[in-house]
Amino acid sequence: MLELTPDNSNQSGKLTARDRRNARLWQLAPWAELLAVTVGPPLAFFLAYLVTGATSPALLVLAALSLPFSLITGLIIAIVIILFRRRWLRRLRDRLASDGITADEVGYFIPELTSGERRVLREMEKRQPLLADAYRETLALRLNATRVTASARRDLLEVERRINRARYLNAPDTAVLMEELSRDRKRLEALKQEGASRRAEAEARLQMIEAASSRGASWAETNYMLRRLDEGRKHVPLGLESVRAEQELREDAERELRQELSQNRLP
């Protein structure tokens, strides 16, 4: 049975066999439903016409007339299923990205890849599987860095709004709040720049792998070129997620401080 949400029991954010099974079911569901709803009613009327020994020509007419209505109904239901499938996949991607995207999970993030990346990945999977593995690993790094940068950008906008609201607070401890928010803004700006830097590094690796693939380089040659890059920094996007968790803790502390300020302002 299809589920509208990913398996919430798996809090680690890892891809499970249940997720894979549900993804396959969601992929097949629109086509299976369209075929069943479109063919089902006309086929039922036609079989009833044959069972009655062709004594009821109205059943044959109903079989012909029901076909377009069944097709329209099937298309509507298929569109609804596709919309639910997109929501399920979006929630699954968010859960998988919570502890970092891995190479095995890149296939579920295809909508977040560029058209060029999708094309190159398909070509490598057909002709050069080893290079395709390296390409998927680098795509995972790029996706992690992109998500970290986008998250830092959203949090930075929220901090800016808090700073603007804090300027209008008439309380004795407003300076302390402004200082905390200013530190948060600097930290998020650094996090945003760091994520952008990691994304640029991942994109450079992607271009290097594409160049190796286009000239038919061997796996050993490609692996040597990749090692020339800073391998110790390839997991930095996960470290950035840790910094983000620290930022959330600081935001909780700032929220408690605002509550204390509000209580002090009460008569």
Could you describe the 3D structure shown?
It is built from seven helices and no strands. The chain has helices at 17-51, 57-96, 115-127, 129-166, 174-214, 219-227, 236-265. The chain is an all-alpha fold and 267 residues long. It is flat. Residues 1-10 and 232-240 have low confidence and may be disordered.
Number of strands: 0
Task: Give the oligomeric state.
Answer: single chain
Number of alpha- plus pi-helical segments: 7
- Give the CA-based shape: flat
Could you tell me the strand content as a percent range?
under 5%
Give a quick set of tags describing it.
77% helix, mainly alpha, disordered N terminus
Short structural summary:
The chain is mostly helical. It is 77% helix and 0% strand.
What are the SSEs and their pairings?
Layout: H1 17-51, H2 57-96, H3 115-127, H4 129-166, H5 174-214, H6 219-227, H7 236-265
